[in-house]
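**User:** My hope is that you can spare some time for a protein that puzzles me. I have put the entry right below:
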Amino acid sequence: MINLEKGQRVNLEVMKFTIGLGWDVNQSASGNDFDLDASVFILGSNQKLISDEYFVFYNNLKSPDEAVVHTGDNLTGDGEGDDESILIDLSKIDFRAEDIRIVVTIHKATERKQNFGQVHNSFVRIYNTDTKEEILKYELEEDFSIETSVEFGRIYKKNGVWKFEAAGVGDKQGLEGYLTKYN
């Protein structure tokens, strides 16, 4: 298993794997529950969504090619281990796909006065879906005190080889910012 640091890249040796995302939240001063949401943007060579159906999230759990399947929304983040999971099968991915962005946003962050500075123990990991063997893990150690969304990582194709990059890039615009950027 490889522990990645921000910006580090590794080749993906398997075509079928699961992305596990996890986090814990501090008790919010606002008293509201946190609802973090994992989303996946499947982009073409122009760094835009192949089509709207290639935005996979809690209201669209599957890409049209069934290469990306979101297992469902965890509304609280309670418990150990992965809070949300995404199944990936690169052997099924649309030939136009060049880049897969993994983003986590805080639902109603502005309204609830929440940000990623109130979230800790955040990680993204990739493991073999069949054997459950962990391939890599990236733990976000930065303090995103004003950000309401974080791009955890990206899977991209370079010279025909799929790679993973630990991104750890925060943003204040939430999900809407990514929809604008990638649509």
